[in-house]
Amino acid sequence: MNTSQKVRRVLIGLVCSTTILAGTVGCSSGGNDTNGDVTLQYWLWDDTQLPAYQTCADNFTAANPTIKVNITQTAWGQYWTNLSTQVAAASAPDVWVDQVSYYPQFVQDKQIEDLQPYIDKDPSSVDLTQYVSGLTDLWVVDGARYGLPKDWDTIGLIINKQAATDAGLTDADFENMTWNPNDGGTFEKTIAKLTVDKSGHHGDDPAFDKNNVAVYGFLTEWADGSQGQNLWGNLAVMNGFTYADKNPFGTTFNYDSPALEATISWMVGLADKGYAPQFDVQSSLSRLDVLKAGTGAMTSVGSFNQMLYKDDPSAYIFAPLPIGPQGRKSAINGLSDAMYAGGKHKDQAFEWIKYLASPACQDVVGDTGVIFPAIPEAADRSVAAREAVGLDASVFLSYTKDPNGTFLLPISYHGTEVSQIVQDAIQSAALHTTDPATALKQANDKVNALFK
Fold it and tell me: pTM (2 decimals)?
């Protein structure tokens, strides 16, 4: 099977059932220049993608001289807070990058625009069949369409190759690691081998001093919202966890599941054994910076971050997630661009959204290699761009070979509140202020109360 065929299969079966209608409120944050031209405000969070989308904006304006695009990039941690504030103040950007766990609340609050009427005016202007299978359905609610597909991603592992060599490990040792929450499987054994104390003892050596660690075998992601996209969600789903009674638009959640509690307890245990840094030590540090510095040996990584290692690709090993009790699974995510329902320049905003979802822009983005665009041919360009600098993207495509190798992140209303509640609970367990079972039970009660 060629790469394009692999990409086309990534999201097969991800069909979105839907439940509500949207309307319009508020006023636009866009503006008119003195010569009558329209300036659209566009928000995104990823600084690595900013150059590609600036190129798209420049090309779009060249083709549409009366429409300018002003891009604002804000880091993920502040992005949603800032957006919520601007929406509440009726001054949101004309278009913003949207994510599946956040968009239902915008729909419920009638803050984003249904794009289907714009498509219906000229159906030939948007080819809904050109995208990776399943992506178009993620943004449909009761026949209303709140986005056109932008990209997709999966999760893998990255290992500092020097740390692996020092531990006597080869690339092949990371290909088929197993994991379970009881003893950690060969995944934990590998993490132990990668861990080194300040006297040079590895974590599997009885002389290892967990209180004086020089290189941590694993860098855990604790700031992972209610999804655990970058780590715990993958492990928990492999352990039998399901987020809710249904997905999308679940109303009864299972964050008190023993399968999730066991997963979080295992993660906490890694730090207690000295194999991973304690949360209060690591929380202010970038996992990727620690990995590059050589004081961390392995961590999880999204396909959207692989190109961060293009300057020295031979220094790293990319590997799939370990195989859990219910197989190897990766979260898969897709983004779109949303139109503010209170915008003053909706026709122009739709032209920009349509351009973002077209080969003209997605090929530009694909050529950077930063992400996998939603159009398969553009995603192929991303794979080729990574190969050109010595990065093998096959790990991130590997999950598509198994029809059960990916799972959809939870889509529900109250996404912002759910994210904060669950993240706070999991971080309290990481800080040892509350045991995992109690923290998750309390969080689950709070989450379910939102839907009553």
Answer: 0.84
